[in-house]
Amino acid sequence: MNEQLMHFLWKFRKFGFNELYSTNGELIRVVSTGIHNGNAGPDFFNARIEIGGQLWAGNVEIHIKASDWYLHGHEKDKNYQNVILHVVWEDDVEVFSANNRLIPAFEIRKYVSCSALTNYKKLMSAKKQFINCEDSISDINPLLRHRWSERLYFERLQHKTKKIEKELQLNNNDWDDIVFSSLIRNFGFKINADSFASIAGAIPYGVIRKVKASRQSFEALLFGMAGLLDAGLPDAYFIALRDQYAFLKNKFNLSNESVVAPSFFRLRPNNFPTIRLSQFCSLYSNEEHLFSKVIELNSMEACYKLFHAVASSYWDSHYTFGKKSALKRKKKTTRSFIDLIVINTVIPVKFKYAQYTGASFDEEIISMIGALKPEDNSIITGFRQSGIDVSSAFGSQSLLHLYNNYCSKNKCLQCEIGNKLINE
Q: How is 270-338 classified by DSSP, letter by letter?
């Protein structure tokens, strides 16, 4: 037995509907189990329970053994003074609150549903290669899976937009700055995301506003802050950028000491930081009021048009400074790259701005994410092999959140699918 399972048994009333009694013989009637608390303090808030004919309103604490109350020091903690019932698996000792009040105990093991325990043990002890329910997840009603997928996707969005919330507090609600920092981070992909974000963090956005109109000056600024202009190369374009960066660094009193150096390792040439930074500069130099245009986006075709960016002509024949490539061609942002920008920047920004202004954006989000192809990685492959069809980025994003926040942490009791399997 574990407390996570006991929380599940209490929350979903898996203790039968017959007469219930406290360990001292008082009749118990559970009007409301309360609100599950995932933070510090009692496990369930605002429960309503009739004990011995008296209706009580307060909190419920859950332990495997009643003596855990003292092990955790609750008898000294005023946050536990309003506990009205102690739900335990084994009542091995009487417990008292900080104000010396005896707290009634309910020994749930005497009433628990045997089928729920059996199904839980079966689920958690299954021999698995991927997830606990890999042999049964495809049997779950598709409507339930879709409803759970929607909730998972919006959970993922809420998680992504927490960073936006913090940045808004720091930049006085400057949404242009939000779009800039989010976009540059995502132009760095996973490998250079932190590096590109550190570049944005080292340059006040007021400086960006002044410099971005000049494509070459903007490239000089970003390349210089990234430390890509530190070498001494006999390359005319490199020298021009280096000199321009020296001027801008002095003019705006900039420092790149906090910037994380970008990596070229394990990257395809088209994803080299040099190419991505140049494309980013192209986007920002060509577009005025980018934030407003992001908010107005309502179709993928509009996204592909807005985020179509071409690296400057120097990069037609280069991937790194001073070294010509054999093949000369334009380095453009691809549709698959723009799909990632939509997933990781456009939708989170539009979602958070809708919350900020009190607008509704949910249906548009589902439509936009549903029009994108799903990601292809080992996690999505695992779900496909378990019989789950993944036809769009809506599905893949939901499943990534499911795996990373529930499956991999054995949180089957907090999962709609796990709940269904245990309740059968």
A: GG-HHHHHHHHHHHHHH-SSHHHHHHH--SHHHHHHHT--B--GGGGSEEETTEE-SS----B--HHHH
DSSP code string of 20-36: EE-TTS-EEEEEE--EE
Residue type, 331: K
CA dihedral 301, 305, 311, 313 (to 10 degrees): 120
At 55-104, the pLDDT tens digits run 999 999 999 999 999 999 999 999 999 999 999 999 999 999 988 999 99
Task: Return phi, psi of residue 87, to 5°.
Answer: -90, 120
Nearest Cα to Cα of residue 180 among 158, 160, 204, 162: 204
Q: How far is CA 386 from CA 25, 133, 158, 375, in A?
A: 49, 9, 27, 17
Q: What span, in angstroms and rounded, lies between the C-alpha atoms of 400 and 379? A: 7
* pLDDT, tens only, 125-172: 877 889 999 999 999 999 999 999 999 999 999 999 998 999 999 999
Choose among 236, 213, 211: nearest CA to 221.
211
Give the Cα separation of 336 and 304 in Å (integer): 10
| Whole-number Cα distances in Å, 51 to 24, 30, 65, 279 | 11, 9, 21, 68
Give residue-wise pLDDT tens across range 191-224: 999 999 999 999 999 999 999 999 999 999 999 9
Q: Whole-angstrom Cα distance, residue 201 to residue 182?
A: 11
Instruction: Tell me which residue of 422, 365, 419, 369 sits closest to 399, measured CA to CA.
Output: 369
Give the integer Cα–Cα distance in Å for 170 and 316. 39
Take residue 166 and report the two structure tokens written for it.
């913090």
| Helices (H), ranges, 228-272 | 236-251
